[in-house]
Amino acid sequence: MKRTLCLLAGFALLAFAATTAQAQVIAQWTFETSVPNTAGPFAPEVGSGSALGFHAGASVYTSPAGNGSPHAFSSTNWAIGDYYQFQSSTIGFSGIKISWDQTSSNTGPGRETLQYSTDGTTFTQFGSELTILANASPNPTWNSSTASPIYTFSFDLSSLSALNNASAVYFRLVDSSTISANGGTVAPTGTDRVDNFTIALVPEPTAISLLGGLGLLGLCLKNRRK
After folding, report:
1. Which of 59, 166, 70, 174 is nearest to 113 (CA)?
2. pLDDT digits (tens, 9 = 90+) for 14-26
3. Which of 58, 134, 146, 161 has the most CB atoms less than 10 A away?
4. What is the pTM of this model?
């Protein structure tokens, strides 16, 4: 019985280490300070860097409700190749991950790609084309008080060594299709908005809890053999 309790305690410590691991944030844009109404650039609310929007044609930029916050970054008149861009430094860091919230109006872009660069000129697509959900029923709509996880994208980029310890890294969310979020065609008045864009480190289990759990398990197994 004692050995069983010992093993359970060891596994509990390991589980705690895994669930309490926190990702260190390098830069984050919530748009609560910048409250954008132009293409930018805008400094992040956490860390350093810049965010901006690019449209080949004229676009109206606004800051409507985010995904559970008062403000996001929104724009109209989307065409293939238009994008949002986020830039920061990763000097001293390795094992990069990014996450963000994104939605479109019914006639806003419904397909986009994630691209990255270390020089701001040559960009490489990461993964497959992304589907952007409509900010309309039956989906929960964005508002200032309640966030919905169905709009959140998250990617572990630790396999991309070029992003480690780099003086500058760039990420773009690029319109890649004329298909709108409701399956029709993107219209000039259609909007796409982004919120909570975060550049962070892939989290690791807390060292003390991890070592404690492993140590306790080792002691339990040692005593069991006696």
Report:
1. 174
2. 444 444 346 799 9
3. 134
4. 0.82
